[in-house]
Amino acid sequence: LLRSCLGLALASLLITSLYAAERPKKPMRETATLPTDKNVLKRFGAIEDYLAEKRWVEAIDVLQDIAQSDGRMLVLAQPGAAGESAVYLNVAARCNILLSQLPPEGLALYRRKIDPQAKRWLDRWKQSHDEANLQRIIREAYLSSYGDDALWELGEAAWDRGDIGSARLYWTQLVPLTQEAHSQKLPTVLRYPDSDRQPSDVLVRLVLCTLMEGDRERAAQELQRFTELFPEAEGSLAGRQGRLGELLAQILAESVQWKSPDDSGDIATFGINSSRGGNLPESVELGASKWSQSLASNVLPPLDRPNLPHDRGPLSYYPVTYRDVVLVNNSRSIWAWNLLTGEPAWPSENGNAEIYSTVAEGTASSPTQSCAGVPYYTMTIADGKLYARMGSPVTNPTDNETSSEASESDLICLDLAGGQGKLVWKIGANELIKDEQKQWRFEGSPLVMAGRAYVALSRRRTQLEFAIACVDATTGTLLWNRNIASTRSPVEDHQNRVSHLLLTAGAGKLFFSTDAGAIIAVNAKDGQLEWAITYESLAPARPHLLSSHFYQGLLPPIYHEGFVFVAPNDCNRVFCIEA
To answer: Between the CA of residue 441 and those of 313, 356, 393, 467, what are the distances in Å?
Structure first.
């Protein structure tokens, strides 16, 4: 299925064209509001005038000032026409794209100004190997004479720690844009224009990235193209010296014996892993049932659905596995069974498989008002711990909702490796984000990587607001929180909104589809907004379709080999976006 989607999406790359066109006569009707500043857009207009007049010094000064003062915001880079999408970029990235388009004399002026500081940062990295110095070059001196050195070394460091997606991201930026790109108005992707790194050394590493990500078929195609371009290229690869094409062919042949990162067979989260595009190590043969357990049915007051049966049924529950244990949750409980026998995974006082409950038996109450949306239940396992969103699937209750459960929204962490499901920490959405208005709810289960847990939140006031928060996975302590967008809610004010939006990770970024007119990427380290794609959000033909699992799927983005694939619930298009 993933390969089919990739083929479809790659054939539709023009959906999110990488290059800006002239402003369309009929602008797109945007429903999402992003963290932007119109004054910044006006200042970019002034820069274009400086560039047209070849006033390089003035243009460089303004670009540096904008990048330093507004570098955490977004700016419109490619307006969208009706039926198309618009592209927003981080302000600092947009500044670097403009600098990358300077002619040689303009770029030389910039480098004379910025190179001394960039060299000091590079020297500090050589002494300490603290990647923060390289990141500072990328952030504040990307187009310096040392920017390509920083990209190369960051790629090497990411490769060494097994972060293949980030390695690909850094090394790809050393591949200059094609000549066709320079005939366009302005690209919306950033490339270092004149690296002194050998192209063969860069491209051979990108082929290795493809191979390490488990795509042997694509790697073979890339190897064939590489040998056509660089038949005589020599160098060092994986500790071997010789012709790079021959070394790659040897490694490709050996890769048949390699194990995939997903070969453990464990299902760590929805989509198997944090990219949401994992593969099982082998095909599953379905035979006779070994055991079964009944799960509670979803009972939410539906929207009025004339002439249609009430159906909340299939595929609301998404189990995860840890060693010989399978775990399932709903809004109130988590259960753990032995994979082979179906017996409770661990002894309990009441003799059942429940390892966690949010309420005392018989005290929970269901929502009283009609609900728009489909309930889903997912969890995440990382480093021997289980993470879940608990509480009502109602993420944004109406003011008329009287059920106390509808206001509950908690993140929990349970110890599986050493505690048989013992609670490690628990935190409520409004405890995490201290805000006078409150009303925040967790959107879905967190994504957990490198000791951090990431989760999306929402609240409904005048508009539907979204945020992403990062907490310490060990303690639940907030590390950062970022408001990312507000949109017009498809759910009426008198209805409860039910949702379960999940984050996706790749190349050091988090990707989030609002299902309400915007797809957004933020930096996983500090939450900085990287880019956003907006599109026309389509209301369902009939309101009750919001509560139909046939029309509303659990559809987080998929990250795969440098691309993000998104099929939002609120439009009839598939997006393929360069990460």
So the answer is: 24, 20, 10, 10
